[in-house]
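Customer ticket, subject: "Can you confirm the structure for ADP,ATP carrier protein?"

Message body: Hello, I'm evaluating your service for our small team and ran a test protein. I'd like someone to confirm that this is what the system normally returns, since I don't have a reference to compare against.
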Amino acid sequence: MFPVLQRAVFEAQMVLLMIAVLCSTYSMVMYLLIKIYAVTALGVYKDVAYRAFTVATGRYRSHAFWALIASIITFLMAFALNLYSKVKGKRGLLLSVFTMVLVYMVLLEGAGVLLSADKHIFGA
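Agent reply: Thanks for trying us out. I re-ran your input and got the following:
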């Protein structure tokens, strides 16, 4: 019914999925590398080295965490756009917009949890 919109939605889906895959892969690799070296330090009784490593990798862990959040957001947006591709016409458009609103609500709730953790756990 809307061929130009369908093409734009398809391209947006591909971009969002590419971002989701790259961000989640980055997050997974960083967390695994950090975990391997942290466990190694603890396994050979180098508690001071473990603490130094934890402090030194704080920036990388933060980047990996936000990459994970970005991956979740882009995946959910791609899912919402996919509904428009699967359900044709105005009904699919309405379903996609409704899903985007739900995704937005989920993101607001998640942001509330993150802010609460920042206030009560990391801010204390």
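A couple of notes from the result: The CA atoms of residues 118 and 124 lie 9 Å apart. The longest helix spans residues 3-43. Feel free to reply with more questions.
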